[in-house]
Write a structure and sequence with these properties.
Elements: H1 5-26, H2 30-35, E1 37-45, E2 50-54, H3 55-66, E3 70-85, E4 88-102, E5 108-125, E6 128-147, H4 150-160
Parallel strand pairs: 1-6
Antiparallel strand pairs: 1-2, 3-4, 4-5, 5-6
């Protein structure tokens, strides 16, 4: 199958939506996070015990449960496969993520290193491609306490968290 210019544009617009989720989540830029989804979008992660919830419910859960102790997060996407059917699409993306939170012990960080797939159903809207349904399939997950000097924790918080690197956002 040969791709048209319109196919390539659609793929890039979809990549923008997928990356808006990761960047918005990792930098706690909730405006960017919201840009990834349709208003009625849903999220499920069966292996993580998350049944289908609204994306706004997911965002609230993340803010309430993680933001106080959170140091950083990285959700890296790769191997994205696209399928199109008119103004709808499905993508399957490999995801690797690392998140870190402070613990009760000084200089100890709770670290999650995991990987899996995002299965996304997208819709082309007047504002571009948006995720209507996201399913996270976890393939592996390791959690551990890791020693970090306080200066490292402070540096990450100062430069990576709650910092808006985007122009005009």
């Amino acid at each position: 199958m040969s791709l048209t210019i319109d196919d390539l544009i659609a793929r890039e617009e979809i990549r923008d939506a997928l990356n808006a989720y990761s960047q918005g989540l990792d930098q706690r830029n909730w405006k960017l996070f919201d840009r990834a989804f349709t208003p009625e979008a849903t999220f499920t992660a069966p292996g993580e015990g998350i049944e289908e919830i609204s994306v706004q419910g997911l965002k609230s859960r993340l803010q309430e449960n993680n933001d106080g102790d959170r140091i950083s997060g990285q959700h890296l996407l790769s191997n994205i496969h696209f399928e199109f059917d008119g103004d709808t699409a499905r993508t399957i993306s490999e995801v690797t993520w690392v998140t870190q939170q402070t613990m009760d012990k000084p200089n100890m960080v709770f670290q999650v290193i995991a990987g899996g797939m995002y299965v996304d159903d997208l819709i082309k809207t007047s504002e571009g491609w948006r995720i209507a349904k996201r399913t996270l399939v976890t393939k592996h997950k390791r959690t551990e306490g890791v020693y970090y000097p306080q200066s490292r924790i402070d540096g990450i918080r100062k430069h990576a968290l709650n910092t808006n690197w985007f122009l005009g956002s």
